[in-house]
Design goal:
The protein is mainly β and 875 residues long. Helices cover 1% and strands 50% of the residues.
């Protein structure tokens, strides 16, 4: 049984209680809850019904593929009552649905899961999954609650259904031929459904032949080789019979198409054709998979050659037309499907390696003394072959070499909990790493503790500076090695030099509820930016936006050094025209002296948390586009920080700053002002958005010293730059919250105070280091008159500074006859040399208090370090 991490336990709890979620308080914002049916066959049309909150006055649906289109179907007008003279009222769509649309998918749309969003009066909603398939589709027909009522379908059909209540049971019957292998799959959680489906397959005589649940989250997959010609019944229901609602949609597929359960290796090199083994069922040309079974049924294997994308952009993306959970969202890769006589297979991800791929040999390597030799750098693909095994690898390394060990399994969709250790066999098997495990001494962090919970059971990456030349060992183990073996316990192990990099995720600012976009004229729209830093990359990351419509602008955001979060603000002009469409967020950083750009991956909350502020992870996923909607309703207020009038404490006096460029340890006061658009002004409560998970660990602390009020809209904040803040540029994100009167309907019946939030422009501040090196005090040998001596200058670089240092000697005031020419410590080095010289007429004796000054340049400003030296001059 796989161990459940504390955070994952909370996640499971959240998924169960989210059923009771109600719309959050505040201004109307479209929230799409369910879509039925959740798919259509390519080249055909279907009538789709949507339900949710704040989905008034529908104007259409927005799809993440241009080949899928929708046309609103107005409600039918009420029938006239012959007993009444007055005409019946005009038909009016309900505010929260149901709304009907005719949805068509072009025949050219590739099969897969796409995003569907509601577009209406208040903006654009969160996405829901909509599947384009290649099999005929039908909707379930009630009653289908027992065997006599079973809905008859043919093999090669998809049934769209709903588990309407906790005890709802749906029966489907199909006819098949003896020896056919039929796959019965139910998509539920993978299409944003709350259903936890369970499948049972029975013969016409009532004998249970197959059963499955929790194939992956709420999805179920069962298969059987038909024992005889005849009818077979599929019984589908909610496991435990505890929940059911319109949000419990499903797609039941009955087919003979291939089904892929596992891929080995799980990752391959970008652009390199690679032989990959598929494990699954109904694989065309497949052979028995060496006794591998899944849920008691044998798997097949098939070796195919896959040619992945080769360009650099594709190699830093994850392109998969399926649900992408937070745990895999930061990986890079693409999807693969296999064609067979019964149709195309399910989509499976193939990920990218960061080093040359090496496959673990079939035999050996399960004991330290028989460790399999690998040539580094490489990425080893392996799996636990036998119960209780650990895989051992050996490699050669040089003293001082930096080596990163990174093991990936769950991030590639493998439901196994791995650990690893690094040993020095020449030093009594010294454990150099400790126990590298997800729940050991080294914790794996999440992108966000509840808004986008990426923590997995994979151990964190470990960097080792090699202590001496020689051979080293790596041991890979799984906590499920006694029960889970074969390709479903696959892993990749990277052993190589650090490769600093980053990935970013962008989400609508709503960490507890699903939402889309509902920007108002004269206001702002906000998006969370979450950054994953890899292999020690600590530099600043610039965030920009592309594709903004007329009337919408965005100041660049900087995710400062060593920080992980930021809020991107879009400014909506007072006359910005209405707009609904996709925008793109780009993130750029300098790595090894070169600019590196990564497109931020759009994401959203799928099912929110009914208990906000409890740090319980929401259900979230990656999206296929980032949406912006601008509507003509007016915003209520804006806040802005006046950086031009910022002051800092310098020598115990407040001095005005021309620019926000300050040294470590400085406190800066910045005025803040609220500008009300609404005539009904209210108090506004200011707060700072955190840069890191624990705000106390932030390099810059923000203190709200004066809160603005409805009578006095001016406030102030203090930016407390820590003495050890990492040098570089930062953006401070400030938000303001107020309760405002709001009338929802034109009749003025729905009115009351609602919470409204706005964001200031990012306050950009540059932190200068007070030091970029720790300089050791050198020993100067006795100088003889007319002679010279070499003095070694050693230093320790700070804050990843890689530039050069200038080294000069300044003798004590009033002293002459001893000098040293300026020297340079080149970029990347830590040693330099000063040549001291005593003039022939120098005065013999001790010279105390000379200064060695080491100077580095940062942001065009000199940073100096002084070390005192004493010199003795002799005849």
């Amino acid at each position: 049984m796989r161990r459940l991490l504390p955070g994952l336990a909370a996640f499971a709890f959240c998924a169960s209680v989210a059923i009771a979620q109600q719309p959050p308080p505040g201004l109307p914002s479209p929230r799409l809850h369910n879509v039925f049916p959740a798919g259509v066959k390519a080249g055909e049309s279907v009538e789709v019904t949507t339900n949710g909150f704040d989905i008034e006055e529908p104007t259409g649906l927005y799809f993440s593929h241009p080949g899928i289109k929708a046309e609103f179907v107005p409600p039918e007008p009420p029938k006239a009552d012959p007993k009444k003279k007055d005409a019946p009222p005009a038909a009016k769509a309900a505010p929260n649905g149901p709304h009907k649309f005719k949805v068509s998918a072009d025949a050219s749309v590739p099969p897969g899961v796409y995003d569907i969003r509601f577009v209406g009066k208040w903006g654009v909603s969160n996405p829901r999954a909509f599947v384009v398939g290649n099999l005929p589709e039908v909707n379930e027909k009630e009653p289908n609650n027992d065997v006599p009522e079973a809905q008859k379908v043919e093999i090669g059909t998809i049934v769209n259904g709903i588990i309407a209540n906790p005890t709802d049971v749906d029966y489907t019957v199909f006819s098949g031929k003896k020896a056919q292998r039929v796959i019965v799959s139910c998509r539920a959680s993978s299409i944003d459904s709350k259903a936890k489906a369970m499948i049972e397959i029975y013969s016409a005589e009532g004998r249970k032949l197959a059963i499955n649940r929790n194939y992956k989250d709420g999805d179920a997959v069962a298969d059987l080789v038909l024992p005889a010609d005849g009818d077979y019944f599929v019984r589908l229901f909610e496991f435990t019979y505890q929940t059911g609602s319109p949000d419990h949609v499903y797609r039941l597929a009955i087919s003979t198409a291939p089904w892929i359960d596992a891929v080995f290796p799980t990752a391959i090199e970008p652009g390199k054709p690679t032989s990959v083994t598929l494990f699954g069922r109904n694989l065309p040309g497949g052979s028995p998979a060496d006794g591998l079974v899944l849920d008691g049924r044998p798997l097949e294997k098939l070796t195919v050659t896959i040619t992945p994308p080769a360009d650099a952009q594709a190699a830093s993306r994850l392109t998969l037309r399926d649900r992408i959970e937070p745990g895999t969202a930061l990986q890079d890769g693409f999807e693969y499907r296999l064609k067979g006589p019964g149709g195309e297979s399910n989509a499976v991800p193939i990920y990218f390696t960061h080093e040359k791929l090496a496959l673990k040999k079939n035999a050996g390597g399960t004991k330290a003394e028989g460790a399999e030799a690998i040539t580094t750098p490489c990425e080893v693909a392996g799996f636990i072959a036998k119960k209780g095994d650990r895989d051992w690898y050996s490699f050669e390394a040089k003293q001082g070499q930096e080596v990163v060990f990174e093991l990936t399994a769950e991030r590639h969709g493998i439901a196994a909990d791995f650990f690893l250790n690094v040993y020095n066999p020449t030093n009594k098997m010294q454990n150099l790493s400790g126990d590298i495990d997800d729940d050991g001494s080294q914790q794996t962090s999440s992108l966000h503790p509840f808004g986008f919970y990426t923590r997995t059971a994979d151990p964190p990456a470990f960097k080792l500076t090699i202590p001496a030349d020689g051979k080293y060992l790596v041991a890979v183990g799984s906590h499920q090695a006694s029960s889970l073996t074969g390709p479903r316990s696959a892993y990749t192990l990277r052993v190589g030099p650090p490769k600093p990099d980053f990935r970013a995720v962008v989400m609508p600012y709503s960490r507890f509820y699903q939402t889309g976009s509902d920007a108002r004229q004269g206001g702002v729209e906000a998006y969370d930016i979450f950054v994953q830093r890899q292999d020690g990359f600590n530099g600043p990351i610039d965030v920009t936006v592309e594709g903004l419509p007329k009337g919408v602008t965005a100041k660049p955001l900087v995710i400062g050094p060593t920080t992980y979060w930021g809020v991107l603000r879009l400014d909506i002009a007072a006359d910005a025209p209405a707009f609904t469409g996709a925008i793109t967020v780009k993130t750029t950083a300098t790595i090894a002296g070169k600019p590196v750009t990564r497109e931020a991956r759009p994401a959203s909350v799928t099912w929110g948390n009914p208990q906000p502020n409890q740090n319980i992870p929401v259900v979230a996923r990656l999206d296929q586009s980032l949406m912006l909607a601008v509507r003509p309703e007016k915003a209520f207020f804006k806040i802005d920080a006046d950086s031009t009038n910022a002051t800092a404490k310098i020598n115990n006096k407040d001095e005005k700053l021309a620019k926000l460029i300050v040294p470590q340890g400085t406190k800066v006061t910045v005025p803040v002002k609220v500008a009300w658009i609404s005539p009904d002004k209210q108090n506004v409560v200011l707060a700072a958005e955190p840069m890191v998970q624990n705000p106390q660990n932030s390099p810059i602390l923000v203190q709200i010293t004066t809160q603005p009020t409805k009578d006095k809209p001016e406030g102030a904040i203090v930016l407390d730059v820590k003495a050890n803040a990492y040098p570089g540029k930062y953006s401070i994100n400030l938000r303001g919250d107020a309760q405002v009167p709001f009338v929802r309907d034109t009749a003025g019946k729905q009115k009351g105070n609602v919470p409204v939030r706005s964001f200031a422009q990012p306050i950009e501040i540059t932190v200068l280091p007070t030091s970029l090196a720790k300089v050791s005090t050198p020993q100067v040998p006795t100088l003889k008159l007319g002679m010279s001596a070499d003095v070694m200058i050693k230093l320790e670089r700070q804050y990843d500074y890689a530039g050069e240092y200038k080294v000069t000697f300044v003798p004590p005031q009033g002293t002459s006859g001893v000098s040293a020419a300026e020297a340079t410590i080149p970029a990347g080095q830590t040693d330099g040399k000063l040549v001291f010289k005593a003039a022939a007429d120098a005065k013999p004796g001790a010279i105390n208090g000379g200064l060695i000054i080491v100077t580095a340049m940062h942001e065009g400003k000199p940073i100096t370090h002084e070390t005192k030296v004493n010199i003795n001059v002799a005849k």
